[in-house]
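Fold it.
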Amino acid sequence: MKAAVIQIRGDQGLDGNLAACARWLAGAAAAGARLAVLPENFAYYGCRELAAGRAEATPAGPARGFLAAEARRHGLWILGGTLPIAAADDPRPFAASLLVSPAGEEVARYDKIHLFDVDVAETGRQYRESADYRPGDRVVVADTPAGRLGLSVCYDLRFPELYREQSRQGAEILAAPSAFTAATGRAHWELLLRARAVENLCYVVAANLADRDHPARPTWGGSAIVDPWGTVLASLDNDEGFAVADIDLAHLRALRARMPVHRHRRL
């Protein structure tokens, strides 16, 4: 079964971002994809999180409605990167990743656990994601026709224990919608994707925002699909578009039989 990663710039406002996503989702579906992953902040990158979180507080929100409509239109499973979704008891929204079925139903939700509070030495930029978002606290794995899917977001990639727990819960595909910075992406993006694939013997499907020359918030791009042996099956550079590759669970199971790391764990 084919999976796709969708890559956009993310700086076109809500309507422009959704139009870009719609264009590339249609292309991915035409190429045979059954599962498509959108980047982190695919709809609201750079927008006011609090207002957006209120707008998306119910499934009738504009971006949540978009995901449902596109999933039905193309018969796709869509992982909607992240959306800010208001929390009942905190002024900060969650950064929520929503898995939508071809029936347009939200079948799983993951709230980003690890928030990016970092000073990037290479650029001098400061990021304080916890000022705008509330962290989640729940590991999420969900069944799809492509395989059992572990949900994560961006900075989560640096915390291997999350993926080990997803693997323990049966994950076969690890999804990582992201808005990885250009500086850290250049150094670590592909390295981390391949490491998470190899150490868990899982496919990794990672969609990133792409705008390396943005004057304020440059993002790396490089969206990719990686197989359980660490091979990059399909990828993008710094342009908008989509990439498609096969998720072959027979191949995954054969690799796990040859390299039974899941049975050899001691800690």
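The chain has one domain: 2-264.
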